[in-house]
Design a protein that fits this description.
Layout lengths: L1 H23 L8 H11 L5 E3 L4 E4 L3 E10 L7 E9 L6 E8 L1 H15 L7 H4 L15 E4 L4 H17 L9 E7 L20 E3 L8 E8 L4 H18 L9 H16 L6 H11 L1 H4 L3 E4 L7 E7 L6 E5 L1 H10 L4 E4 L2 E5 L5 E5 L3 E5 L5 E9 L2 E5 L9 E2 H8 L15
Parallel strand pairs: 6-7
Antiparallel strand pairs: 1-3, 2-3, 3-4, 4-5, 7-9, 8-9, 10-11, 11-12, 12-19, 13-14, 14-15, 15-17, 16-17, 17-18
């Protein structure tokens, strides 16, 4: 009871102090019209400014607004808004932060986008035009433009579309803050190694969609400001291709032909690294994803096209690198090797060359706790019905090692590595 009384008194004192502050003007008021005009003159020098006498005022629990409209010489088609804004953070009603800002860029971008739709957009082919959607916005801020891609070819269509619009926009805004999100919902299968959400990420760009969206997973990259759009789009393209390689599947326009073309181009880009300048090397490593993924990904030639994109790493420091397959890749490789395979990429069985029956499943794991009491998963497979634990699985890519692959198929995948110096 004593604690309750103390808390009640503290609350009443807080309300009283707040009321006194509100009545005595402790909190900042709106900027004056002269202050707003000074802000505009500083931001837009050498421009004629007409600021309205009238304004609108809005008040809320967290923020207050006073908004004027204004025009600028050189922009006869546009009417802009400028606001004196007061907000409270983090405590409601304690409005202590005051600022002035305007929506010049939002107004110009929206107008130019409408003009773009009536002009340059109409000159593009139908597959590129369908990617365009009008910008949306709030009163003062422009929202990002989401571009949904269906196929890998759409990646380059989107780049061309953005390049064209940014060039059109630059005639009035030299450096804009427009943002674009390239998003591709995955059409093919997505097999998780364990039931935790982070294990689903076979590629770094894969995101779990919200309930009700088109598909469960998507890949998304952002383009903004002066970022290198070529590099970002190449990263996006690489993520899609590597995803379908690791899933041993096709979808979103990915097929054997463009997958092989991607592999050959990837190897050619890697071959350029030793002779590249530091700046060129940085750009190449970024677009290839080497900085994010290390140098652990390589291609092997199984005798059938396309080449397989596989993971390679040292299990122990200084030891020989081990090549790993994902579950779907092992299933596909066994089929290519002429073995009897039953089931899908997330759960299948295969009879090895020496007659043993192996069974693999993403549900074959033992859940436990590590030394810090975090969830820990130990994966296993079945050999003639008996559990065989797979030690030191650190990622979905690092699953089936080359020694086990050789026992099952009789094939040495290390001898299949395609080196960048090989003729394509």
């Amino acid at each position: 009871m004593k604690i309750r009384k103390i808390l009640r008194k503290c609350f009443l004192w807080a309300v009283a102090v707040l009321g006194i502050c509100l009545l005595s003007g402790c909190f900042p008021g709106f900027n004056s019209r002269d202050e707003v005009m000074a802000y505009l003159k500083k931001k837009y020098p050498d421009r004629q400014i007409v600021l309205s006498q009238k304004y609108k005022t809005r008040r809320g629990l967290m923020e207050d607004w006073r908004i004027w409209s204004f025009t600028l010489s050189g922009n006869p088609k546009d009417t802009f808004q400028v606001a004196s804004h007061i907000k409270s953070y983090p405590v409601p009603m304690l409005k202590t932060e005051r600022s002035i800002f305007d929506n010049f860029e939002k107004v110009v971008v929206l107008r130019r986008s409408r003009e773009f739709e009536q002009g340059p957009l109409r000159t593009l082919d139908a597959p590129t035009r369908r990617l365009w959607h009008s910008f949306s916005s709030s009163e003062f801020w422009l929202k990002p433009l989401y571009i949904d891609l269906e196929t890998v070819d759409d990646v380059w269509r989107a780049k061309h579309l953005i390049d064209l619009f940014e060039q059109f926009l630059s005639e009035e805004i030299v450096e804009s803050d427009t943002r674009y999100f390239l998003r591709m919902y995955i059409q093919g299968p997505c097999y998780a190694l364990t039931p935790t959400s982070d294990s689903i990420n076979f590629v770094s760009g894969l995101t779990i969609a919200k309930p009700g969206e088109k598909r469960p997973y998507y890949i998304q990259f952002q383009i903004y400001n002066q970022i290198n759009r070529q590099v970002v789009c190449q990263q996006f393209y690489n993520e899609v291709m590597s995803y379908y390689q690791l899933m041993a599947a096709q979808g979103n326009g990915v097929n054997a032909i463009n997958m092989q073309a991607w592999a050959e181009d990837y190897l050619q880009q890697v071959a350029r690294l030793p002779s590249a300048t530091p700046r060129e090397r940085d750009t190449l490593e970024t677009s290839l994803g080497i900085k994010d993924k290390g140098d652990g990904f390589l291609f092997i030639d199984t005798g059938q096209k396309p080449y397989m994109f596989v993971y390679s790493s040292e299990r122990k420091e200084g030891s020989e690198k081990t090549i790993f397959f994902t579950y779907p890749q092992l299933r596909s490789f066994c089929q290519q090797s002429g073995l009897q395979v039953k089931g899908a990429g997330n759960h299948f069985s295969v009879t090895s060359i020496d007659g043993h029956r192996y069974e693999f499943s993403t549900t074959f794991y033992i859940k436990g706790k590590d030394e810090f009491d975090f969830d820990d998963y130990t994966c296993y497979y079945l050999r003639d019905g008996q559990k065989v634990v797979m030690e030191d699985i650190w990622s979905p890519q690092e699953c089936i090692d080359d020694a086990l692959i050789r026992r099952i198929t009789g094939r040495d995948v290390k001898s299949m590595v395609v080196h960048t110096a090989d003729k394509q």
